[in-house]
Structure formats: structure tokens, C-alpha cells
Give the backbone structure.
Amino acid sequence: MDLRYSKADEKFRSELRAWLEQAVSSHGSAPPQNDWQARRDWDTRWQRRLYDAGYAGIHWPREYGGRDATLTEQLVYYEEIARAHAPYIGVNFVGMLHGGPTLICEGTEQQKAEHVPRILKGEEIWCQGFSEPAAGSDLANLQTRAVRDGDVYRVTGHKIWTSFAQVADFCELLVRTNPDAPKHKGISWLIMPMDLPGIEIRPLATIMGESDFSEVFLEDVQIPVENLVGQENDGWRVTNVTLRFERGTAFASEMYQLREFLAQLVGVAKRVTRHGAPAWEDRVLRREVGHLQADLDALWAMVKLSVSETAQTGVPGVGASAIKLYYTELYQRICEFGLRVLGRAALARDDVGALPNHEVLYRTLQSLSLTIAAGTSQIQRNIISERILGLPREPR
Amino acid sequence: MDFRVTEDQQALQEGIRSFCAGRVSHEQLRALEPVGGFERGLWTALAELGVFSLRQPEQEGGVGLGNAEAVLVFEELGRAVVPGPLLWSHLAAGRVEGAAQGACVVGGLDLFDAAAGPTLVEHLESLDVLLLLRPDGVARIDPAALEAHRVETPLDPLTPVWEVAALPAGVRIGDAEDARGIRLEGAALAAAMLLGMAEECVTLATAYARQREQFNRPIGSFQSIKHILADTFVRQEAARAAVYAAGATLDDPLVGDPGRAVSVAKAIAGDAAWRNARACIQVHGGMGYTWEVPVHYYLKRAWVLEQVFGTTEEHADTLAEHVADAVA
């Protein structure tokens, strides 16, 4: 039960911190959310700088150019990235965290050689074509049809919630290649170049009014057969192999920032007035901050415990569901606290009266996605109760 | 950093767990009700296990372990809702002669919030020594000399209480810093017991949900029940991490602020024990409302432990000050 970082971890931390100090300050400020070309440029330039400094692919194997860092080093990495307010992974998200790792595990030598180094250097951007209007929590129910025709698959269907579609070069696409097999057994994983004819992208405005994700319509898109990753009809398993890359450090940066955010809200509470006194003098409000901080500290301890356990077994615990559930719901509670600190001022999404309205409202609205994306809170509760507590499974 | 419980620590924990399974089963708890949760033979056995001498140096006859091990031991004692003035006797080891060996049964009163009367002393008739913890120091008094009357119906049938009219100053055995230190360690160990209780409530409720059938299905197959249980599991896991972090931080203050870590543990584990006991009762349905199933012991003890070494609210207030101090 040792919480002390090793000398090697501390050395890693101080080198990274020193590098981040100069790299972040010289990278400039982030472009507007809706300017996708500028965002791509900004995020990929950052990815290239990480690559040149030896910090790209912190969790990737060394033979693919990654750093193959220990889980503890990864935790340090995400802490330091957050502490330095470094650019987040941005448009490199799908390639670095899902597409790339999938190719490393399941791709052919040619597929790996063509894509993996380019993803790592920020030269190739990926998006994800998994969800469909009728395949959300029940992803295996996806209906996008791929029919083999000589050297190509002819693909027709409708994907949704596709982030980065406007700027992506490739899409990791799940399609149904065998409609007669049980639903998990007829799915294939394809690399779809986004410049093929028949692809139509329709941006969806989020609750924030921004085009963070899109619908992608596929009309007889012809994808070369050599773009199949893994075996035909084995796509469900291929999709899940990357889980071995995801070991509970995924939210570490955001958790660190959330702690800073709560402290920032306390600063606001000291400045704003309620009932003729600083809001911070309201005992109820202060106590709420105490409860939120207790949860934040407990969450961080959970991450450390999970990382330590995973480092030993090599298998990510199902406990990741507990962390995801706790983290996302806590995030929303902190945002709602922030809204109440702003009070009527929160009618404005832009900063007014020297208050951080933009950040509070951006986080508050965006936080609503956290309990929906990547497995809803309800799905997480099913996973915990069935896979950990051993309760009878839902009919599937 | 390796935050896992080590193999030695696991073995220690399993030893306590199997002792409790043999000596403090739910049936045996029921048998302890008429004697107010205290029985000399059980006390001696706990002492022989090292529950009280755990953190005393080996050269003084103790086990020589730290707070990290102590929280694991008290987690198990909580899991079995072992009754008696366990926390105070453990904290008194090395300060009151005979406490470590179980020869002297020590109880205590946390008087940091002195205005919070009436004064109720737990387990009074079983005590040889009563410690008084005040912000300015620690004192011991002779419980036999107190004018006290027994409360006929205590909340927890295994934690009898006496109302005491007036407390003497007592013999001073520690200064303000000692008092703060005892209270901090006490809060960590109370949190550990609350953690064990929160965990056992998950186990009891899950077992019942798998076995109890309605509408021709185990009730645990319904999402309405599953999601209650999933939430109890999340609270248990948060409490486990927080309590272990408190133990580790008390042993090695270089990894964090022990006061802060302990406040987190007490607040999170207190909440987890109470809410998990509530959930466990709800999942048990009508049976949960009876004296027949042991769940009520957990709910009632959770309140007893909530009320010592700082309530959840007090620790939340402390944490708020920690955050505020860091903000200009």
C-alpha cells in the first residue's frame, strides 16, 4: 500500500515538466471550436512535437514508435499534461486511442506500415464509424451493409456521432458482412478512406451549438477488400482487442483539470455576492465544496488503486466501469455547483462581469455527454451488477 | 507507487476475517445482545489476535505494524460489525497500561464538539478506563466514579449507552497535539470499520437479490434492483480507495496531507456505510425491516461510528477549508 512514486517516475516527471513548460508556451492559443481546419492544424502540430520529443504514443509499444510507459508513468504523463494546460489529444483521438492500437493488434504488415507511423506523427487523422441510429448501447445491432463484389466491398448505410469526420483521412468502419449470422458474428472492421465517392457528411449541432460530431451517410461506397482488418465477420472481436490498451488512465488528465476547476469555482464564490455577503460565507455552499472535494480525492485514490492492480495483473479490471460512473456523475455535480455559484449570471455563455461564464457553461453543457458516451451510466451499472456482482444477465 | 494491498497485508486481513467468521457470526452477534455487545472471552481473543497492540512497537510486546495494516484489520472488524469499545482500546494502547493486552478495557468520549450534549458514554459498565478527548488534551477518568444512568433502549442493540450528568477533569495523560493525533487516527480507523460495513452490505444485498424470486425471476435480474446494487458497489470502491489512502498517508506524510486524507476517508466511508445499509434494507424488502436479518445492525452501527471523531459534515467543512486555502 505504497503511494510514493519511484525515483524513476519522478525523473520522468521532471523531464516531462521541463519540456512541457517551453513547448506549451510556444504552441500558441487554441483555435475556435468551429474552425475545423485550424483545429486539425493545431492538434496535429502538437502531436508532431510530442513525437519529436519522444512523448507520442505514451501507451504504445516501442516497436511501433511508442514509449511503452509503465502505467504509473502514464498516470504521471496525464497529470503533467493537465497541469501544463497542454493541448489535449484533439483530432488525433480516434487514431491514437483506437484505430492505431487496433491496427497494431490486428492489422496486416502492410496496413501497419501504411498507417501506424503516420498516425503517431499526426499526419493521418481518423474518425470512428461505429454507432448508428438504431445501434447505440446495442452496438452489435448495426445495419450498415457491406457486400463483397470482386476486389471491393460495396457499403451502404448510416453512421452517427462521428467526431472529426470533417477533417478525417480515414474511418474505422464497422459493417455487417453476414446478415444471417447472430448479430455479433456477422460484423467486419474496415479501413475507409474518407475521400471515396458516396460518402456524405452532415454535421450535427450539439447541445452547445457546435458541430462536434456528424452523421455519415454511405451510398454504395466501394472499399478495397485489402482494407479489411482481421477476418471477415470477426469485426466484433477486432473492435474489442484495443481494450487491452485502455487501463484506467484514460480520464486522468480530465480528473486533474476537474480538481483545478473546483478550486476555480471556489475563487468565484469568494468574489460573488449572495444576500449581501460573499457566497463563500454561506456554510451550505462551503460544505458542498467539501463533499465534492472528498469525492474528487476518493476518485483519484481509486485511479491509483486501479492502476496498481492493473499493472500487476496486466488485465484492466472491470472496476473501470465503477471509475467511469463515479467520475462522470461527479463531473456533472461539480458543473451544477458552478452554475449555482454563477446564478443569474449564467444566463450568459460569454464571460460577463469578470466571471468565467464561458468555461463554466462550456463544461456544464459538455458534461451532459459524459454519462451517455462510451457506455451510458445505465450500461455501466449493468456491467457492474452482472460482471462484478454476478447478477443474472439482461436478455440479449 | 504500488497502492495494492501486499501479500503480508492480505494474510493479516484474511486472518482477522476468518476469526470473525468463527467467533462473530450474525448468530453470535444476536447472542451478544443481552450483554450489550461485550463479552470478556471475545475481548481476550481479539487482544490475542493483536487487534489492540497492532501498532505498538515489537520491543514493547506489540505487533509493530502501521496505519496501513490497522485500517485493513478494522475493515474486517467492521465487516463483521464486531461490537465493543474496539477503537478506543486500540487507540489507548501504549497510553493506558493493559489496554494493548486486553486486560484493561478502555472506552472514550470525543469532546471536540463539547456543546453537542447530552453526554452519552458507550459501553460504560464494561469499561475499566474512560478517555476524554478535548481540544486541549487527553484525560483519563475512572468510569465507576461517574454518576450515570443507563439508557434503556440504545439505537444499536450492541452499543449500550449511559447518560452522564457531569464529567470530571480527570488525570491529564496527553497534550493538545496528542488529542489531535488520537482523533485523526481514530477517524481513519472508524472510516475503516465503516468501509467494511459498506462492503458487507453489498455482499448481503447481492446474495439476497440472487436468491429471492418474484414474478418467477430472481429480483437481481431486474435493472431497478441491479442499479441500486451497482451504486452500492461504486460507493464501496470509493470508500476502499479513500480509506487505504488515509492509512498509507498517515504512515508516509510525504505522499500527502494526512489530515486531508483522513477527512476524505471518514466522509466517504461514512456516507457509503449509511447509504449501503439503506440500500441493503430496501433490497431485502419486508425482511429488511425486521430484527430477523442482520442488516439493521449495519445501519445502526453506521450511525454510532458517524458520531465519533468527526461527522461527515465536519470533515466536509474541513476539506472545504483545504480547498479555500489553496485559492487566493
User: Anything to note?
Assistant: Chain B has ten helices and nine strands. The mean pLDDT of chain B is 96.
